[in-house]
UniProtKB/TrEMBL annotation:
HAMAP family: ATP_synth_b_bprime. F(1)F(0) ATP synthase produces ATP from ADP in the presence of a proton or sodium gradient. F-type ATPases consist of two structural domains, F(1) containing the extramembraneous catalytic core and F(0) containing the membrane proton channel, linked together by a central stalk and a peripheral stalk. During catalysis, ATP synthesis in the catalytic domain of F(1) is coupled via a rotary mechanism of the central stalk subunits to proton translocation. It comes from Winogradskyella flava. It comes from the Bacteria. The chain crosses the membrane at residues 6-25. Belongs to the ATPase B chain family. It is a single-pass membrane protein. This is ATP synthase subunit b. GO terms for molecular function: proton-transporting ATP synthase activity, rotational mechanism; proton-transporting ATPase activity, rotational mechanism. It is found in: Cell membrane; Endomembrane system.
Length: 164
C-alpha cells in the first residue's frame, strides 16, 4: 500500500531526482536534440521548397513543351499549305503547258492539212489543166480535120472578135 500512499521522503527525492534529470537533460541533451529537430525541420522545409520549385519548373517545361508543340503543329500546317500550293501551281503550270503544246500541235496539224489541201488542189488543177488540154487538142483535131469545119471556125472566131 505504500505505493498508493507515498510518503513525504519518497515524493521529495523523486522531485529532486526529476529536477536533476531535467537539469542534466537541458544542459546536455536538449540542445543537440533541438538542433537535430531544427535541422530536420530545415531539411524538410528545403525539401518542400525544392519540390515546389521542381513542380513550378515542370509546369514551365510543360508549358514550353506545349508551346513548342503548337509551334511545330503550326509550322507543319504551314509546310503542308505551302506544299499544296506548290502542287497546285505545278499542276496548273503543267496543264497550261499541255494546253499550249496541244494548241501548237493543232495549229501545226491545221497548217499541214492546209498545205496538203493546197498541194492537192494544185495537183488537181494541174491534172484538170492537162485533161483540158488533151480534150481541147482532141476537139481541135477533130474540128480541124475537115476543111469546111476549119473555115467555119475561123469565121465564127472573126465574128466574135471585135476591133477596138
Amino acid at each position: 500500500m505504500d505505493l498508493i500512499k507515498p510518503g513525504f521522503g519518497l515524493v521529495f527525492w523523486t522531485i529532486i531526482t526529476f529536477l536533476i534529470l531535467l537539469f542534466l537533460l537541458r544542459k546536455f541533451a536538449w540542445k543537440p536534440i533541438l538542433g537535430a529537430v531544427s535541422e530536420r525541420e530545415e531539411g524538410i522545409k528545403e525539401a518542400l521548397a525544392s519540390a515546389e520549385n521542381a513542380r513550378k519548373e515542370m509546369e514551365n517545361l510543360q508549358a514550353d513543351n506545349e508551346r513548342i508543340l503548337q509551334e511545330a503543329r503550326a509550322e507543319r500546317e504551314a509546310m503542308l499549305k505551302d506544299a499544296r500550293e506548290i502542287r497546285e501551281q505545278t499542276i496548273a503550270k503543267a496543264e497550261t503547258e499541255a494546253q499550249e503544246k496541244a494548241s501548237k500541235i493543232i495549229e501545226k496539224a491545221q497548217a499541214a492539212i492546209e498545205s496538203e489541201k493546197k498541194a492537192a488542189m494544185a495537183e488537181l488543177k494541174s491534172h484538170v489543166a492537162g485533161l483540158s488540154l488533151d480534150i481541147a487538142e482532141k476537139v481541135v483535131r477533130n474540128e480541124l480535120s475537115n476543111k469546111d469545119k476549119q473555115l467555119k471556125l475561123v469565121e465564127d472566131m472573126l465574128g466574135e472578135a471585135t476591133l477596138k
